[in-house]
Design goal:
There is one protein chain. By secondary structure, the chain is α/β, with parallel strands linked by helices. The chain has 13 helices and nine strands. The strands form two sheets. A seven-stranded parallel sheet has the order 3-2-1-4-5-6-8, with helices on both faces. Helix 3 (80-89) links the parallel strand 4 and strand 5 (94-98). Helix 8 (199-210) packs parallel to helix 12 (269-275).
């Protein structure tokens, strides 16, 4: 059995579906009950990493775990070692952990301290492990959906700076491989999209998907900080804006790891926008 935490999220929802379609026995874990139509055979369990003991029923008898840390858990919470103790006690022997590219490119900064601690605990745990370090998600641009629907406008900072963001479905596909296939133990995969894409280009791609022009409005850093602080911890806002506006050379590199694992290129932003155009319509 494979347990998927964050099962209703951008990665987890794809992963649950991919594993179920491949015939795997799946337990979908989320923090609260939602009206979700899971694929046939998927077991749903409510649990929260903030309370590691709540994971025990989910992981009992499991072989593998997809571990995702989000929200407040990115900044503080129970020791990673305690989470892994509960996981191992349930029988889990393989863990695939979603970290971030920033653990390597922004090493030592407060915004990545928690993910770094999880990575280190997992590597010391005695479990088989695979660590995924994705770049930014295409799905982050869902934040533009309301303004695109209402005004055909995208407002964002750093409109001319490109980053190799990635489709969460591709992260899920790599995770599915690492959870269900041999050959991925003790691997750290950096996951990016196939090209650099700027916010201005992403707005154009949404417009192309909709068949209608979408206007791009450039925000200042201060304006972006104010907006992002409404739903992200301040240290996370700081390092996110630093990456968006002042990326390092490593943060603009295209990684081959998706192709290495899946045998195909990751999706482009234009392809993602076409598949998700209903969100912006």
């Amino acid at each position: 059995m494979i347990v998927v935490t964050g099962a209703t999220g951008n990665i987890g929802a794809h992963l649950v579906r991919d594993l179920a379609e491949a015939g795997q026995e799946v337990t979908a874990v989320s923090r609260g009950s939602r009206d979700v139509e899971w694929p046939d055979g998927v077991r749903s369990v409510v649990a929260d990493l903030a309370d590691p003991d709540s994971l025990a029923p989910a992981v009992a008898g499991a072989d593998a775990l997809f571990l995702l840390v989000t929200g407040e858990q990115l900044m503080s919470g129970p020791d990673p070692e305690r989470v892994l103790e509960v996981v191992a006690a349930g029988g889990v022997r393989r863990v695939v952990f979603v970290s971030s590219q920033g653990v390597a490119t922004r090493a030592g900064t407060d915004g990545y301290a928690r993910l770094t601690a999880y990575e280190q605990a997992i590597q010391r745990s005695g479990l088989d492990w695979t660590i995924l370090r994705p770049s930014g998600f295409f799905a982050n641009t869902y934040a533009w959906a309301e303004s695109v629907r209402a005004e055909r406008t995208v407002a964002a900072p750093f409109g001319a700076i490109g980053l190799p963001s990635i489709d969460p479905a591709d992260i899920a596909a790599v995770a599915a491989a690492a959870l269900s296939e041999d050959g991925h133990a003790e691997q750290i995969y950096t996951l990016t999209g196939p090209t650099l894409s700027t916010p201005r280009e992403q707005a154009e791609a949404i417009g192309a998907a909709l068949g209608a022009p979408v206007r791009f409005v450039e925000l200042t850093r201060a304006q972006a900080y104010t907006g992002m602080s409404q739903f992200m911890p301040e240290p996370v806002v700081e390092h996110t804006l630093s990456i968006l506006g002042e990326p390092t050379a490593a943060e603009q590199e295209i990684s081959p790891d998706v192709r290495r694992v899946l045998g195909r290129l990751p999706a482009s932003y234009a392809e993602w926008a076409q598949r998700n155009r209903a969100v912006f319509a």
